[in-house]
Design brief:
Organism: Acetobacter aceti
Pfam family, one: TetR_C_24
Largest sheet: none
Structural class: mainly alpha
CATH topology of the largest domain: Tetracycline Repressor, domain 2
Keywords: DNA-binding, Repressor, Transcription, Transcription regulation
Protein name: HTH tetR-type domain-containing protein
Shape: elongated
Strand content: under 5%
GO molecular function: DNA-binding transcription factor activity; transcription cis-regulatory region binding
Order of helices and strands: HHHHHHHHHH
Low-confidence stretches: 1-8
Length: 202
C-alpha cells in the first residue's frame, strides 16, 4: 500500500517552515536528543518515511531553526537601534525589541540555549558570529553613551554582553503567565534595570 499521507495533513504541514515549527516545539519540550524523526512526523500527522521526502534529518531541522532564529533576532535588534541616535533611547528600544523577541520566539530561544553544542562546526560558527554581531551592536551603543558621559561602566565589553544576555527566557514567561505581568510592564521593568546597570537612572 502506498504511503499516502496527503489526506491526513494540509499542504501547509508539508512546508519546511511548518515542519520547523512543530520540531521546535518538540525540541523545546523534550529536548533534541529525545526527539526522533518519528516524533516529528507524528506531531505533524504523517508517517516518518514521508517526512524524509522533505528533510534529511532532525539535525538539518535544528540547524535551520537556530540559524533562522539568530538571523531574525539580529535583524530585529538592528532595526530597533536604528530608530534613534541617542544611546539612552537606543537602549530602551533595543531592550523592548529583545523582550518582544523572547516572548514571540520562546521555543526557539529555549532550543538555542540547550542545543547550540549539537550544531555542526560550520553552523555553530555562523550562529556564534550572529550572536557576536549583536554583542558588537550593543557595544557601539554603550561606547557612544560612555563617550557622551551618559553611561558609566567599568567595561564596555561586559556591559554589551549584559545587554544581550539580560533576559532569562523562563523568567520572562513565568512573569507573564504566573504573575500576570503585561508585555508593557515587562519592557518597562527591563528598561529600568538595563539603564541602571549602565549607571544611568531611567
Amino acid at each position: 500500500m502506498a504511503d499516502d499521507d496527503t489526506h491526513i495533513v494540509s499542504k501547509k504541514a508539508l512546508k519546511r517552515d511548518y515542519i520547523d515549527e512543530v520540531a521546535c516545539d518538540l525540541f523545546a519540550r523534550q529536548g533534541f536528543a529525545r526527539t526522533s524523526m518519528r516524533d516529528i512526523a507524528g506531531a505533524i500527522g504523517i508517517r516518518a518515511p514521508s517526512l524524509y521526502n522533505h528533510v534529511d534529518s532532525k539535525e538539518e531541522v535544528l540547524n535551520r531553526i537556530l540559524l533562522t532564529m539568530f538571523h531574525a533576532q539580529y535583524s530585529d535588534l538592528k532595526k530597533a537601534l536604528a530608530v534613534s541616535e541617542n544611546p539612552i533611547e537606543q537602549v530602551k528600544k533595543g531592550i523592548v525589541a529583545q523582550v518582544h523577541f523572547r516572548i514571540t520566539h520562546a521555543n526557539a530561544i529555549i532550543v538555542a540555549a540547550r542545543e547550540t553544542l549539537e550544531l555542526n562546526a560550520n553552523i555553530k560558527n555562523e550562529v556564534l558570529s550572529l550572536r557576536d554581531q549583536q554583542y558588537q551592536a550593543w557595544a557601539d551603543v554603550v561606547e557612544r553613551g560612555v563617550q557622551a558621559r551618559l553611561f558609566h561602566v567599568p567595561s564596555v565589553r561586559l556591559a554589551s554582553i549584559t545587554m544581550y544576555d539580560f533576559f532569562n527566557y523562563l523568567e520572562i514567561n513565568i512573569l507573564r503567565i504566573q504573575e500576570n505581568i503585561s508585555k508593557k510592564e515587562l519592557c518597562n521593568w527591563y528598561m529600568e534595570m538595563a539603564l541602571q546597570s549602565l549607571g544611568r537612572q531611567p
